[in-house]
Amino acid sequence: MTTLTQTLADFTVQTRFEDLPQPVVHEAKRLLLDTIGCALGAIDTPSGQIALDYVNMLGGTPDASVIGSSKRSSATAAAYANARLANVLDADDTFPTSTHFGNATVFSALALAELDACDGRDLLGAIAVGFDVGARIGSWMGAPMQIENGKVIGWNELGGPAATITWAAIGASADIARLNGAQANHAFGIGGSNSPQPTLRKWAESVEQPMYKYADAGWCAEIGVSSALLGRLGSTGFKDILDGENAFWKFYGSPNHDDGALLAGLGTDWQILNTTYKPWPCCRWIHHPLTAFGRLLEQHALRPDDITRVVVRANPFALTPIFREQHPRDLLSAEFSHAHALAARAFDVPPGPRWYETATMNDPHIAAFRERVSVTAEPSSSNIAEWMTGGQWRGVPGGVDIHARGTVFSATADHATGDPWTAATHFTDEQIRRKFGVMVGLDANGNGPETLQQAARDVADVVMSLESLPVDRLAVALNALCQSMRAVGVEA
Fold it and tell me: Which family is annotated (predicted)?
């Protein structure tokens, strides 16, 4: 039986831009702009430089753009570098299966769009479709913990975000490569069989993070591109990789699966509309306490010197040692530190690359503030299973208690800024543009050198009108922006 595999494969290759509702098209543009910004912001990081040096060392035919490089490379190499860059700052969008896959969705599709000289409509369609595939695989496999009678009874021994990142890339790549149903079926088998190892448990226990965290988004994107190209050339894979007792969910370590969640509303319920955007470059689980923290700072005009102590109330995912670390030693570890995130927010450090620059990490005022932050459990999210629907979280409370001016200011956020399910937290187009500006070197208000402002606007304008443009217009605008970043002293 290949019912699940073939049904999802057929959806992937048969869906076209004309099938997308307008809100889905608009969200694909927003995701594209946000993801490009996250990649641009990571160019001058150690991990970003390694990705660029690695791709430069590989060489390859100049078929696709590499963010931050004046040289083009092969589709697989470009997908690798760009997707890895997009995940370096942990500022990229997060789907409520607790994973990021906008990075690989966008950059696997963009690499193949450039290879095949596609239109912007093709790229936007592939982003929407690929995102849907990744989201559905994540929802199908469910949470990375064991749940019995509605209660969490333990963590999975295996599992992790790499699965959904890879599947999103496979879906996007199969769509934009214009595979037929049989070729897509084989591409699914090829990509699913070669997904990275599930390392979530190892990540959770590690205070010092490797540069790729729990999965290298670049490799996941490269797997998607390679799977589609191999399928197009006639290579074969397991045609039933999503079906039967030995399906992907089982050998990837999930204790159960929900076939209904995989296919429910296929082609009508577009999962890209459920993604969350990050106003701050850190783990999404920190955003709920950060949202509450920011509200209190603004409501009571609290300044860092007013604050003697902050108690973070975190959900069960954000209580492991890495989240409690007060003095993270590197960028990747700092992305999971409640203390560092609250310190950067308290001192109004622009929420982008500057959060992790050496000057910020070593600032004595930042360090002193981190010392005053402790982490405990948020009682209302202690049973995280209560906050799940169809394998997804739509709100997991987190909060803070700020000790200042002789009193305690407390707040809890069920939804974090950037969540699409409430009007108060929805990330507007203007917020996405402003975040993009910070990532490329402008300040939080969009101010900076006029040439850089104009180049950033040009990229955003191209993305927002991409359905009427060829993809190479985006490549040209991106190259001009990188040149402008170099000219004003932002490494690119």
Answer: Belongs to the PrpD family.
